[in-house]
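To: structure subgroup
Subject: Chain for Friday's discussion

All,

I'm putting the inputs and outputs inline so they're searchable in the archive.
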Amino acid sequence: MGLGLAFSFLCRCISSFQVAGISGISVLRSGNQITLSAGSAPSLQLGSNSYAVTEVFGVWALDDNGDKSATNGDQSGWKKSINFAGTGGITGWKTNPNSGLINDPQVFTYGSLTGSVESFGYHIRVSGNLPGGGNTAFFRPVEPGTLAALGADVALMDRRRRNR
């Protein structure tokens, strides 16, 4: 997965989420309940660029290996959003852009949530424009060290392709 990004406005599957360094946004899971929190100054690190996150208006439990099932309904003005098509899947909630959250927690409860959740993904708005245009996109967090390693792996793969 390179950093030349094409962004989709409709989250349909797990591949809609780009990997990026995210700080100030977190999800705490306790059983079938998750608490989405966005601090006062969350940020997105994408390659060598940093963006201020101005709003979070979607959260999903991400299942990379297809061993999860879940049920959820609309809650607090946020609509359920589920897709388990193909390998992996997503299940969570989304709201209308411009009515998301920042500097505030939101609690969501699944009717059921089984199997492993490898990570959580977010639909966020940033100040400025992202690569490819626009200021909203779907992201899943990765540790900063992992993001640097991913960039090194991509650079190594590119170098190998050129040397063939």
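Points worth raising on Friday:
Residues 14-162 form one domain.
The chain has one domain: 14-162.

D.
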